[in-house]
Amino acid sequence: MAYLDHAATTPMLPEAAEALTAHLGATGNASSLHASGRQARRTVEEARETLAEALGARPSEVVFTSGGTEADNLAVKGLYWSRRDADPARTRVLASPVEHHAVLDAVHWLGEHEGATIEYLPVDIHGRVHPDALREAIARNPDDVALATVMWANNEIGTILPIRELADAAAEFGVPLHSDAVQAFGQTPVDFAASGLAAMTVSGHKIGGPYGIGALILGREHTPVPVLHGGGQERHVRSGTLDVPAIASFAVAGRLAAEQREWFAREIGALRDALVAAVREAVPDAILGGDPDPEGRLPANAHFTFPGCEGDSLLLLLDAQGIECSTGSACTAGVAQPSHVLLATGTDPDLARGTLRFSLGHTSTEADVEALAKAIGPAVERARAAGLT
Amino acid sequence: MTHTPQRSRPLRVLAAMSGGVDSAVAAARAAEAGHDVTGVHLALSANPQSFRTGARGCCTIEDSRDARRAADVIGIPFYVWDLADRFREDVVEDFVAEYEAGRTPNPCLRCNEKIKFAALLDKALALGFDAVCTGHYAKVIVHEDGTRELHRASDMAKDQSYVLGVLDDRQLAHAMFPLGDTVTTKDEIRAEAERRGLAVAKKPDSHDICFIADGDTQGFLANRLGRSEGDIVDESGNRLGTHEGAYGFTIGQRKGLRIGTPAPDGKPRYVLDISPVTNTVTVGPADALDVSALTAIKPRWCGVAPTGPGTYTAQLRAHGGETEVTAELVDGRLEVSFAEPVRGVAPGQAIVLYDGTRVVGSATIASTRRATAGVA
What we know:
Number of domains of chain A: 2
Largest sheet of chain B: 6 strands, antiparallel, barrel
Strand order of the largest sheet of chain A: 2-8-7-6-5-3-4
Structural class of chain A: alpha/beta
Structural class of chain B: alpha/beta
Number of helices of chain A: 12
CATH superfamily of the largest domain in chain B: HUPs
CATH class of the largest domain in chain B: Alpha Beta
Number of domains of chain B: 3
CATH architecture of the largest domain in chain A: 3-Layer(aba) Sandwich
Largest sheet of chain A: 7 strands, mixed
Largest interface: A-B, 19 and 22 residues
Helix content of chain B: 10-25%
Oligomer: heterodimer
Distance between the termini of chain B: 44 Å
Strand order of the largest sheet of chain B: 12-15-14-13-16-17
Strand content of chain B: 25-35%
Low-confidence stretches of chain B: 1-6, 50-58
CATH class of the largest domain in chain A: Alpha Beta
CATH superfamily of the largest domain in chain A: Type I PLP-dependent aspartate aminotransferase-like (Major domain)
Shape of chain A: globular
Number of strands of chain B: 17
Order of helices and strands of chain B: EHEHEHHEEEHEHHEEEEEEEEEE
CATH topology of the largest domain in chain B: Rossmann fold
Number of strands of chain A: 14
Low-confidence stretches of chain A: none
Shape of chain B: globular
Helix content of chain A: 40-55%
CATH topology of the largest domain in chain A: Aspartate Aminotransferase, domain 2
């Protein structure tokens, strides 16, 4: 089995699994005042500190959520509501068109139900938003912008975006910038304080932690209107009893992601380069998606378009040989749609149907790459014969 | 004759899974027989509905999920293939055009011919599969010399060979119907599904046209073709009433005519003829529906085309009985005469010819000749 879909989810790190199971047996609501509660709270606060350190943030800036999707929704909707409440003129939302659906659909919802005007920022062929494009978009009317949201690194094509420069551009006008850093964390330097962001999303299971836990790193001066109302946990921004074992485990994974980032970039990056070379050798007309410069893309990501093939066919053929990857595009009832990311970068819609994303991770080996190198050529040949339906 | 419903060599099989109980059990049986099975759900609607509304169709996200759930339990890979464009072109548009022309199409048959055993089969073969497996009740029998025949299912009550009668030899060569040998009731298939841990065991059967979710065919057609008022006349051409679109009627239909005055003899009246050109619907007594012969076009044969006239049994609709006929191929058209007059034969429907349990071929009914005076 060659698992090449770490961007979907990556195996849990043994240390994270150990932390999770160690806390599953303990009783204690972190909001309770008695000894059990105090013990739970201590675990949570230590985890908060660990994660804050791994992300260059203050502990008070870590708001635990149920995952990346919730953190994105909280940032986008919550900041929109709070900024509009402060000044009703602020109804414009600026977003990159290559965002994950957790951001894209939240933004779209604001447009449909909350009177927001959505403006998608232009991107280059690698899916990158230029800081001047953001500057120009805000400058058209700085007073009506509620927020801007641009991901740190793209989940499909792996392009890393210039977040620091984008945050600077937003800061010139006092506009809060949120960034979905779910894919970036652990692969490229992510430092919240240095970034100048207002808010940033991270997720547990993408870095070797458990599912169902994530965090919104939220600058202290920002108070988004909650999406979940209740007991007032997490700065009254995100109510709900804290998931102590998941939080403890997430923190361990987060610490290791930061500690091992350089190793990861070097070793997994080299493996990725080998994978790209192998695919190109087997299928000379395969088109590498995203930034061809290794510095400009996530070290674990390789994205290809195979002209004349349907991504679904390739997926089936590779899966039958124990090679697991993804088309990288979203599904409606499991029906593949051309990726919005590729369409935004100007890819022809027919070409956009023939894509595969290979994403490596901490358990990837040379054998995985070799298995793919052997299988991809015949698979592409066969998928081409099946054609586009 | 060698009876080999389950070929012994392991095959790479693509199982079409609708989300219903039959196709799930069929896929499970194929896997259990040692074949390398992959499940596929066909997305046939461009805008699938999230949840079932009323009668069960095959076009909801819920059905797709049920099929995936079954595939997971069986332990086979599962994919959803988007054939919505092909389905719309080849099945839905054809359905509308046929009604518009005053005929009564069978979209399930059309789907088997153009989608399941054409678009789907071609893609499957190109991707290296050997066969497409479905939950139809029918049998493929392969002889020692390699020739093959399509037969009625062992259980006549469940038999679905009629909707497969359009398949030609090449299509049959790559078809697998694991339920064909089952002499059972649906309850037993459900019991088998339950035994296999398939959650679809309790799911209601599908009867309706899958792309008309609410079961309202007239509403669907009215929406597509618009309302167009025309006359309802008797056999002599006397105007008895009006209708809102001739396409809304089927030969043999009795209900919904809304004619105020009763027939002189007090007997019920039936739709005898639909003329889309004049937008006229002709009604008359039941015995005027009796048909003694018909001409059918676009014949397809399971194997070699017969030469000369032959005696067969024929089936004229999906759940219809058998009737004795003599049939002959004349200039590429099938001329059929009935031993006894049959009632309510609608142009557009398929006639499937049988020799005993063996499907000989099928054709689309183009015109009929009345047993009594007059031509419909």
